[in-house]
Amino acid sequence: MFIVDTDVHNYWSSAEVLLPYLEPYWRDFLVRGEKPGPRGSFPHGHRPWLHPEGFSRHDIRPETEEDNYLIMKEKHLDLYDIDVAILTADEPLEASTLANYHYANALVKAYNDYMIDWWLPKDSRFKGSIIISPTDPHGAAAEIRRLGGHKDIVQVLASHGSQRPYGDPFYHPIYEACAEVGLPFAIHFGGQGGVNHNAVASGPTAYYWETHALLSQPAMTHVVSMISNGVFEKYPDLYFVVIECGVSWVPSLMWRLDANFKALRKETPWLKMLPSEYCRRNIRFSTQPLEQPQNVRHLWETLEHMDGQNTLLFASDYPHWDFDAPTNLHIPPAWRDKVMGLNALEVYKRIEAPAASARVA
């Protein structure tokens, strides 16, 4: 089976790896202001909750970048015969929490150069994401255009913690640049804190587990905003990928949107289709974390209502504690080829199904 893992986190041992890629002015910010040390020293706004166990599996604790790659190769890429692993970074997504967007732009630019220099050449299975800071859409668009032509870059990625819903015209320079270079725009769970102060609609949560259970709330807002603001009329070929936000909420949200649109469509006359039709055409969802009802057929019926056979993309979330192995993905057996890899080929145009001989030794 051809497998594309759309969410593989490539950790670093320390934010110090960014120092060679930062201009002296910003390097001084990081060294004197943040004191790079263990992972987690990357600058970001503080969250109201704390993770009680840490984000990574306890059996994966690399000390260096090389260890990180070798462990990933042994415990994930080779173990599950992964054909393509899309790197989604980790701490760099938190740049979206910084009020100083100049600094945020410098940090994500440094990470992107580091990722291209160190990670992409390491394994032919790796594909990269351009990390952006959406707090400065024009700066983000410049970064997309700077790196968007790289053959192993397959998407633009931001945190799903934001100051505004992502359909807001404020962000449209990002989508213009994505359309120009032919890359999908993806959001990944996280980035709450700092300027993105609320993880959920009613206010800050106290515990990580409740936050994790509610992680779909911002994603719901962004999906509705992208559709209602006409992003997919303006950029009809743009794919919007929602990573690590659950999926079972999608059908009920589309039912409500379609019903309300029929009654109130005069507010958004630029929309030519039902919201659910835009969703099926332009929006894709990662499988991780896939909801786990006691009766799996309840999940399958829900997924059928969102055309899951065509709208789901496999994601493991390696190496996080709630990692989903390809062998444990509870989807209808007839969907496996499409969800595990073939759907990704339609979204990530630069990925081709490789011959077995092309894999890393």
Structural features, described:
Keywords: Lyase. This is Amidohydrolase-related domain-containing protein. It comes from Mesorhizobium metallidurans STM 2683. GO terms for molecular function: carboxy-lyase activity; hydrolase activity. One of its GO terms (cellular component) is cytoplasm. The radius of gyration is 19 Å and the shape is globular. The protein is built from 13 helices and eight strands. Helix 4 runs parallel beside helix 5 (172-181). The longest helix is centred in the N-terminal third of the chain and has 19 residues, at 101-119. Helix 5 links the parallel strand 4 and strand 5. The chain has one domain (4-356): TIM Barrel (Alpha-Beta Barrel), CATH 3.20.20. Strands 1-2-3-4-5-6-7-8 form an eight-stranded parallel sheet. The chain starts with a strand and ends in a 14-residue tail after the last helix. With 361 residues, the protein is of the alpha/beta class. The protein is 38% helix and 10% strand.
Main features:
single chain, 361 residues, alpha/beta, TIM Barrel, eight-stranded parallel sheet, 13 helices, 10% strand, globular, lyase
